[in-house]
Design goal:
The complex is a heterodimer of chains A (176) and B (153).
Chain A (H helix, E strand, L loop, with lengths): L1 H22 L3 H21 L3 H25 L9 H21 L16 H4 L4 H9 L5 H32 L1
Helix pairs in contact in A: 1-2, 2-3
Chain B lengths: L1 H28 L28 H31 L7 H22 L5 H22 L4 H4 L1
Helix pairs in contact in B: 2-3
Classes of the chains: A mainly alpha (176), B mainly alpha (153).
Chain lengths: 176, 153
């Protein structure tokens, strides 16, 4: 009962905030509404027994990506071309195709949705997931190589992102 | 299990209540004088210049990018740190666990060193570089297209 109540509360928070993010006139308010959506999704992870994933969601998406989105908005001048019919049509086509794919696949295989009453109480049964993940990172014939390779990928992402952000000075100057 | 998450809930509620209570207490205690100065947006005592709806400096973005990379690093290191003592006693891992974790940090430290040396974390130097870049571009533009007006006169 408590888990169903928590699910309804946080899933509702996620959906309502997503709708605000979609339909609010100010993009900055949309970005702030995304905060509620990401927190709601973090709770869904928690209720499915993935406590490490929930923590990562809060740390990286709520703490980092959202800040990046806000800075991105503050750096971007308003663009009137967003309202051209061709762009609107392209956006509708892409999201429509995604929604169609999701709706047709939702009722088959791994996507199969469980009835609301039969939600397993995974949060009460599951054990913490951080320890098995940590051990899997350290064992040689498990995910050790992937773990170390993640560091290299992060290094490439850091250097590349900073390099591209630095080049912006020139782009701005030529545009002015 | 839900009991474990109760402390997070208490933390959230206490944090929200702290902000809300302070605002309530402030609205009760502060004098209500509606002068022109009092109604202006407060900028640490400075008088505001222009609108606050301007484009932010790109350097904020660089710092945020660096932050995200290291947040992901923390997300990777957290489960490893959690089992470090345990891993020491497992046959086949032992002391290697420490080396593996150090290697992970060392590779990312190269990135930090690169950003640091290149001056992307340095507010003033980055500004100087931008200034010099602008001047260089201005000089290039002048060299490539000399103003014809001077020759005519």
């Amino acid at each position: 009962m408590a888990s169903l109540l928590a699910f309804l509360l946080f899933a509702g928070l996620a959906v309502v905030c997503a709708l605000v993010a979609l339909f609010h006139r100010s993009v900055v308010h949309s970005a702030f509404a995304l905060l509620g959506t990401l927190l709601g999704v973090a709770d869904l992870f928690l209720q499915l027994g993935a406590d490490y994933l929930a923590m990562t969601q809060v740390l990286i998406y709520v703490g980092g990506i959202l800040v990046l989105i806000l800075f991105g908005l503050m750096l971007t001048p308003p663009d009137r071309r967003e309202l051209r019919p061709a762009r609107i049509f392209l956006g509708l086509a892409v999201t429509g195709a995604g929604a169609l794919l999701f709706l047709t696949r939702m009722d088959s295989g791994a996507w199969k949705a469980a009835p609301l009453q039969e939600l397993p109480d995974l949060a009460n049964q599951a054990s913490p997931t951080a320890e098995p993940i940590g051990l899997a990172f350290l064992e040689r014939d498990s995910w050790l190589l992937a773990f170390e390779f993640a560091s290299v990928i992060l290094l490439a992402a850091l250097v590349g992102a900073v390099f591209i952000a630095r080049r912006r000075f020139r782009v701005d100057d030529e545009g002015a | 299990m839900y009991f474990h998450y109760a402390n997070i809930l208490v933390f959230l509620v206490a944090g929200m209540a702290f902000v809300f209570l302070n605002m309530v207490i402030g609205s009760l205690l502060r004098p209500k004088r509606k002068t022109d100065e009092g109604l202006e947006p407060y900028e640490c005592g400075e008088e505001t210049i222009g609108s606050s709806w301007f484009r932010f400096d790109i350097r904020y973005y660089t710092v945020a990018l660096v932050y995200i990379v290291f947040a992901v690093e923390v997300a990777f290191l957290f489960p490893v740190a959690r089992v470090m003592r345990q891993a020491f006693e497992i046959e086949g891992i032992g002391g290697l666990a420490l080396i593996e974790a150090f290697l992970f940090v060392a590779i990312l430290f190269l990135g930090l060193a690169y950003v640091w040396v290149k001056g992307d974390l340095n507010w003033v130097r980055a500004f100087q570089r931008e200034f010099e870049e602008r001047r260089r571009l201005e000089a290039e533009r002048r060299a490539s297209s000399p103003p014809p007006a001077r020759k005519a006169s």
